[in-house]
Design goal:
By secondary structure, the protein is α/β, with parallel strands linked by helices. It contains nine helices and eleven strands. Strands 2-1-3-4-7-8-9-10-11 form a nine-stranded mixed beta sheet, with helices on both faces. Helix 1 packs parallel to helix 7, helix 2 packs parallel to helix 3 and helix 7 runs antiparallel to helix 8. The chain is globular and about 50 Å long.
Length: 279
Amino acid sequence: MTKLAILVISSHVVRGTVGNRAAVFALETLGFPVWAVPTVTLPWHPGHGPATRIIPPADAFAAMLADLERAPWLGEVGGVLTGYLGSAEQAAPVARLIEAVKACRPDALYVCDPVIGDRGGLYVPQATAEAIRDHLLPLADIATPNRAELDWLSGQRNETLDGIAAAARSLPPQGMLVTSAPAGEGRIGNLWVEEETALVASHDLVAKPPNGLGDLTAAMLLAKRLEGQGAPETLRQVTAAVFDILSRAADRGADELMLETDAASLTAPTAGVDVRPLG
């Protein structure tokens, strides 16, 4: 059976496995056709050093997305994933495109990965973070912030799983996967929150992990939900696959995830993760 396409809107790097480079590879490996829209093009992840940013002019970006709204093939799209935005002006046309997808296919699933910052603070302009919060988050079926992003979006800093779960429930998306959640000494986890359900999947902490884990997590989460998997199995498979790929890259001393080498981990991860209900 042919799978529905997934529209992915995020950054593109020439070298590396972040943004669209991570998400598109994972989704296509899992058998999904992908429509990929770059919000910014960079030679590499800025964490590797200063890098030129090519951001499409706001009017041209909006016009291209308007073309996609009118595309005769829009009904092929069954899921949308948004990640890093190159500017605040991109949020409104992205929101209109998401609304067009949902108007064409009401059961389309939208995952918002609010790529705005980490424990060091916002690494996008505040206007961009506010645009994601105001335009995109309210449309999302699921969001995948890290702890710092959740703190900023909810306006409160939380150090416990119960506090993080409460903050997640205070935001619009029905489902929330919070990455980098505390899971005990030497461990880290993903916290899934949906209505009355809260589940934690944890694994050993890996020092100085490569970038791209959030992009990969969001893409795999969307894929598994579109395949009809329930929350517990989705959480287990996504966490295991990402940890498997992370561990293998770390063992090699790689400064990027190596999806092309570890593609098998996307479908058959060998890493063990602990999944338990919160409380």
